[in-house]
Design brief:
Elements lengths: L11 H10 L2 E8 L2 E12 L7 E4 L18 E4 L6
Antiparallel strand pairs: 1-2, 1-4, 2-3
């Protein structure tokens, strides 16, 4: 992903705080019918260092959990709420 240098943030502690402050994310997975996106809550633990582990919660009634496959990459997009 292209990130202009003025918007780049590489400090892990700052990125971790951002994730903790905005824990709702979009989980993008691949199914037999194509890409699927689901809004789910995430929790970040700091281990293993340096990047930690991102854990999500999906209801068993949501069929998207069946699309998670350790051999196929998934994508999590952090949602930042901004109110004016």
């Amino acid at each position: 992903m292209y990130i202009p240098s003025q918007f780049e943030e590489s400090r892990v502690e700052v990125l971790h705080q951002l994730i903790r402050s905005h824990s709702l994310g979009i989980l993008v997975t691949f199914s037999t019918s194509g890409m699927e996106a689901n809004h789910i809550p995430f929790h970040l633990t700091p281990e293993p260092t340096p990047f930690g582990t991102l854990q999500g919660h999906m209801a068993r009634a949501n069929p998207a959990w069946q699309n998670i496959n350790q051999k196929i990459e998934s994508l999590v997009v952090n949602i930042i709420k901004r109110f004016t």
